Amino acid sequence: MKRTILFVLILLAVLFVACAPAPTPAPTAAPPTKAPEPTKPAAPAPTATTPRPTPPPGRITVEFWFGLGKPLGDVLEAVVMDFNKSQTKYYVDPIFKGAYVDTMNAAIAAYRAGKAPHIVQMFEVGTATMMAAKGAIKPVYQLAKETGVNLDSKIYIPAVRGYYSEGENMISMPWNSSTPMMYYNKDAFKKAGLDPEKPPKTWTEVRAAAKKLVDTKATACGLTFEWPTWTQLENFSALHNVPLATKTNGMTGMDAELKFNSDLHIRHLQTLMDMTKEGSFKYGGRDGAATVLFPSGECGIIHASSAARARIKNESKFEWGVTFLPYYDDVKGAPINSIIGGASLWVMNSPGRTADEYKAVAEFFAYISKPEVDARWHQETGYVPITHGGNDKTKADGFYAKNPGADLPYQQLTRTQPTENSMGLRLGNMPQIRIIVYEEWEKAFQGQQTAKQAMDNAVKRGNEVLREFEKTYK
Question: Please, what's the b/e burial string for 390-399 (b: 16 or more CB within 10 A of its CB; e: otherwise)?
């Protein structure tokens, strides 16, 4: 009964997010020919194109529910089928369940019915909720201990490992991760008299470049960004080593309190407001709505997911470049490492589950952790290599030499050891908090309130959401 009540509460939280004004809760990678949308429930979910073969008789079969449509889902299924071909004892059955929210809802319903999948792919902002559902999941470190399969967390880059771990213990299996970068239109830079081989590094330089792009009519818009809270709040805080919230951004306790109304955060929002007035910045909307403004040529600079690279390469009719996110150079120690978006793989419990089935899950996790598999996933999808070995293998393959700038996301994620402020975040009902920030920022951009009022209001309302989450799961 207690377990059922817990999951009803989780389900209600998820449904609240799904019905909110901005329904796309998490930044993630994009299919090569369209905007990032694996987490978007607003549009019809894409369908996986690879027919599911029948599991061979005699194999120990486990179900893997995932939330990536074509073509990313096709690559995922190909990786899974290669695992199935690599041995004859286990069989992983990949089942597409729609967008991430759809996949999460389906997993919750299946768990309540006693028929949970063995593995479910879950977006990163669902991490706190999944961790709170203790009886429903089997942590990866516990899976490794029980099965004897070596699942070494140290092979993962720190920014990824820390996001999905409690202390040194990995809770879920990292899989698809991205981080935001700055893309710029080299042709427009040349037209504006800017050096296309020397992209801006600081916010002062970005503002000056954006204004010159507009003033010279090289582009109609100077700067925009997708996933506003991810790029301009969560990663902004990490790069400048300032807390988004207490308790290591929620990693060490559900009683965390939001702290993103600091002087630096207010200063940054004010900068964006000032750029809006002078015409050098265009707010393109929530989630991934602004993505199209860059490849269309309307905006000369965009902060976007590293996984937007494929779309930009496919759709842009101009020469473009990619570089690191900008920072305020008067902030001591900045910039440090950025943080990730994307999803990880969770092991779910269910009545009647056998030790052999858990062993199959562990062996599959060990397989996808291999350098050659991680490198393939990175190169074919645009997600960052999440293991050191995957990055080394990609270098050895000559991929970075043929695709300049494709290695920068990895460099940005690993340029420093994560601090308490750049390890990631684990805040309850984070999708709802993101919506609150959108609402308050939009009022500020429209001149309805000051930058300080916007940040103070967002923190106050966000803390109320955290307290409700804490009451539910404490």
Answer: bbebbeeeeb
